[in-house]
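Retro notes - structure team

What went well: the batch runner handled both jobs without manual restarts.
What didn't: labels got mixed up in the shared folder, which is why I'm recording both outputs here explicitly, each with its sequence directly above its tokens.

Job 1
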Amino acid sequence: MAKPTSTAPTKSKFFRVAVEGATTDGRVIDRAFIEQMAANFDPQVYGARIWVEHLRSTWADGAFKAYGDVTAVKAEEVELGGVKKLALYAQISPTPELVAMNKARQKIYTSIEINPKFSDTGEAYLVGLAVTDSPASLGTEVLSFATKNPGNLFSAAEETTLEFEDTPTEPEGNKLSDAVKNLLKRFTNKTSSDDARISELVGAVETLATHANLSADEFAEEKTRVDTLEAALKKTNEEFAAFRQKVESTDANPKSRPAATGGDGMAETDF
């Protein structure tokens, strides 16, 4: 019997990626930029991918390949050093490699890439998110990249710890209850063979063993149902055995009925 499997989380919780203020090249990310990015971001219009040090590789398996995507952003006010500032929070869908790096405490800082006048909107838009190891700056490689893209702003790095949204799972007790209910329904189907019913019964017992963490009351209730099923199956088997014995004891080639004897078929009557 296959063991229950769990699906790995694919969406992070929101975490802070930028705060209004200075960028790596001395320019300022003002409050309006944060507000506009939060209002305008739409992955269907233009997706913001996740890169190492903002560097893009032309090879899918290169060191500077994309490590996921930004799925949503929002703006929230925070207090830093007694001063209230507007911050941008992002939710991402990371690749397994990025998750592994973050768990290993590598590339734990994030920096956003902003186009201050995106397309024909004339407003700021989030066009990329980078992971880096440097909390103070993004290193000479990124500064070199920034000089080739003078129109974009690169924010100061923010430390990041990836936490994932909880994936709702069905309680094990409910799964077991549903499994037994389905089993009872199948058993009442008169067209099912005995072998199929026995197989279903074995499956139910295995399910009970797998989910041994049920409470005593729940276990007792499910055991009662299985006991009832066992009794019904035993009765069916006995009835089938009796029917088979009756069939086997019946003469398959009965003799013809003896011909009737008598006169010429005329009844004699006394007057």
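Job 2
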Amino acid sequence: MGEWLYLVIGIGVLAVVAIVGLVATAGRRRGAPPVEAPEDRAGGLLAPERPVDERRPGDRDGDRDGEDVPAGGTGTLTEVPEGPVTIEEPPTPAPELDRPEGTQSRLVRLRQRLSRSQGGLGRGLLAILSRDRLDEDAWEDIEDTLLTADIGVAPTQQLVDNLRTRLRVEGGATDVRAVLREELVTLVDPTMDRTLKVSGADGKPGVVLVVGVNGAGKTTTVGKISRILVAQDRSVVLGAADTFRAAAVEQLATWGERVGVPVVRGPEGSDPASVGFEAVKQGIADCVDTVLVDTAGRLQNKAGLMDELGKVKRVIEKQAEVTEVLLVLDATTGQNGMVQARVFSEVVDVTGIVLTKLDGSAKGGIVVAVQRELGVPVKLVGLGEGPDDLAPFDAGAFVDALLG
């Protein structure tokens, strides 16, 4: 009986072990589902990817032919050269330059603006001369009108005498306007050479020295003259020799930038003569047509400053001849401008006059007076604040504008 008991217990133990083994095997099969082949975009099945642990040692993501591919991605490895990395920036576009106005359109605007600002003189004279009877009172009114216009005593007397004679001799059928125009043109003197001397000799540039008192518009005039020359296809260099006024140097630099003209400048307070010298030196080296030199503003009663102006001219002429000395006068200053003109002409031998602000409260007679005083022509007139509001002076156009 005991032997049967041991046999039953042994069979039971074996049965339990067999059942436990079967359960464990079934569990492992349920935890590892079969690998399904993915579908490609065309709808076919792709071969299943080998498990990571079954890949060959040389395999990596994206490795097609055993090539070495950087970890973390696919592609070609690019070596970065040693040294600093330079980033090329796109080229800065050249600034758009102004296109200065031509001479003819300037002259048209000159006549229009002078007619508005100076027409009162001509209309006043015509009103008196058109009276039925020209007695002494009428001629005195004519004289007063001319003197008020800053023509000056001697030119006024000359004009009145000529008008008296012609109107008496030619009689009542005379065209008063035509007679007045002829006499005014004669007074302004159309025979004067008003050409700007901007060309040099022996392959050197012409040198234009611009002088005047502060406030007359000297630096602005230099910039405007450069525009006239650029419009004539001339090459120009600007010399910023007004070194005592930083604003003048910056102002001239702005004028140059607008038309693509180089500006030679020195430190603030440097010797004006040295700046003028360097400007001409660069002009010669660059083979330009004209060098325009701005100078420091001078007071005509300061002997030391006036002497320094003479030095500027002498130093410049060690390299090239100064072909033109332009005196800038504010037309609104009247007889004070005459005093300035006289003193400047004694120091630097003025060859031409630039009258600025002639479109304002100026009297047109200043043109006649300053020419008589110096014996040099008015070559340019300024008629506004615009960059091209500077025009060559024309005697006929000026008189026509006076008569309206």
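One thing worth noting from job 2: The domain at 206-350 is CATH 3.40.50.300 (Rossmann fold).
We'll revisit the folder naming next retro.
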